[in-house]
Amino acid sequence: MPQPPQPPDRPPSSPAGGGRGRDRRRKFLVVGAAVAALLATGAGVWAAVGYDGGRSDAGPRTRDTGRAGRHTDAVPTGPSGGTGTTSGRHGGESGPDPARRPGDARVLFRKPAPQAPSTGADIPGFWVMDGYVVKSVQNRVIAYGDHGEPKWTVKLRDSVCAVPESPTDGKVVIAYRGGGKDGCGRLALIDLDKGVKLWDRRAPYAAPSAPGAPTPGAATQGASTPNALNAPNAFTASGGDHLGMGLAQSGDLVGLSWYGGSAVLKVDDGRQVTPGAPGPGCGVDGFAGGRALLRAYSCDDGTAGLQRINTSTDEVSWTYRVRKGYKVSTIFSTAPVVVALADDHHKSGGVLALSDRGKRRSTLDLGKRSYQPECGLDLFGTKLGGCRGVAVSSDTLYLPTELTLTRDGRPSSEIHAFDLRTGERKWAAKVPGRMLFPLSVEGGDLIAYEEPTDRTAGSVVGIGTGGGRPRTLLRLPSATRVAEAGLASATRVYRNGVFYIASDRLTGSGAPEEMIMAFCR
């Protein structure tokens, strides 16, 4: 349905922010010619948010993790082949608790990572539940209790390759490798409360010949027709490969997007639903889930937009049309809605906040700074949600700035808080010589992670609604600093006074690696 004219959402242009590449443990989405260089080396990437699209003249210092691989051991094993955990001596490193300084956090448990091929391996998926956590690793989904004891295990046919950020009602749809030419072509619904697999089937992969037509060999049905962006007819039912599979879950719906197609399924039974096509000549770019399900699309005529899908009626609730020449490149939050725009050359179009009815609420005034949340490697542009290093409350967006160097050469970054009602910056917080990384908002306060340095372990800090100097909530022990700093990519969650670090990527270097570390007071 056509919308009434809205004020232009273009922010005033400003020069690029300064600074050098970020710490090698974090990943950026680079733009332009730098993509080819990163693909050649297998390096990680970052997402830069700024009116100029971020710097591309100096790439970040990144760990060379190589291509994603997979490992098919029967069970995840520690560095020595055992299934060990928790505190005590591990991989030649002294047990953390005996080396605790006064005020250091206590290690609840540590889980060693399984061995990985020399090319490395992705192990996405980590969810904090009530009294336990769940980690997907290779071809298993495993729950661990408060002290690291195994609670249950669900085995799959092959390695997990894509997961949504948030489960709903204790259930999560995951994607795993389909075998043969299909790299990420099977779906399974896991009950995270009971530790059982409720259904398992092939992902949709071809456009149906008619609405409701069945997809051969699958209980689910066909996907939306690929648009020009997604290389029409690149993958077909006879040899489709779900490259770049992205999942986003909200309520009883899960959105799937991959290079060549997309689909929306019911979580409960895997049945495909049809919220309606974005429009003639348009294709779906990706989804973001959580408190709401959003779908971004772009069209052959250079127009694009964002839609909210009602998870109760399976219909489009509203459509926001982006100014011509730009599209939604990143979805920071689905409720409230906060998105970043970019053009086909990856030049940033700013950050917008929308109302719950899909009207423009504000355009953030980013000024002359560049902001670099961790959004991961997304070569096909199908994973629009799930950026880390971003936190959102009902009226505030928290973004980390790009790295700068202090006078003595130490890397440093700030967290800036933006008012979603006005778009203006409210305050800035920093710790000289430390990298700050927003995690979440609890009780109105921002929870952030102070990354480790070459000499000091990381910390969890809190920042009040009015800003000010961060206060320490958990100071991680120095004995785990090397393991903490050595993670190629990780999910970090602070919940009820416990801080979890879960690896998303194994380097395959041959050195011991951690899969999960949990800390508390």
Automatic annotation (TrEMBL):
UniProt-listed InterPro entries: Quinoprotein_ADH-like_sf, TAT_signal, WD40/YVTN_repeat-like_dom_sf
Region (Disordered): 1-25, 51-104, 207-231
Pro residues compositional bias, start-end: 1-14
Protein's UniProt name: PQQ-binding-like beta-propeller repeat protein
Keyword set, alphabetical order: Membrane, Transmembrane, Transmembrane helix
Keyword hit for Zinc: no
Basic and acidic residues composition-biased segments: 54-73
Superkingdom of this protein's organism: Bacteria
Source organism per UniProt: Streptomyces milbemycinicus
Ranges of Low complexity composition bias in the record: 207-226
TM region positions: 28-49
Keyword Transmembrane tagged: yes
